[in-house]
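Sample intake sheet
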Amino acid sequence: MITALRICFSSLLLVILAVIVATSLESNLFTEFPDLLRIPWMRATLWDFYALLAPLLFWMWYREPSVAGRVGWTLAFVLLGSIGTSSYILARLFSVDRNAGIGELLLRREGK
């Protein structure tokens, strides 16, 4: 299961990166952002993303043993969006044995 999840999230991260690079070559987000914020669906998409981010942050804060790790990953989640969250999940997937159960992936390690 862990191997399948590694492949799935690696593929997802590569697709996200490809879409972002392709879009960046066509359009500059920093110059277009004010116009984008005028579109109701853009505002809804931002609210949707950050609402989804809250439970992911709570899980990461629970899972990460160090304050530095929590702060660093929080910044990655907020500033990089799906790239940051997918990277965190991949880091966790590669931190457990490929034969690990889902509990080892989702739960924090005691004593750390």
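Comment: Residues 2 and 98 are 5 Å apart (CA to CA). The mean pLDDT is 92.
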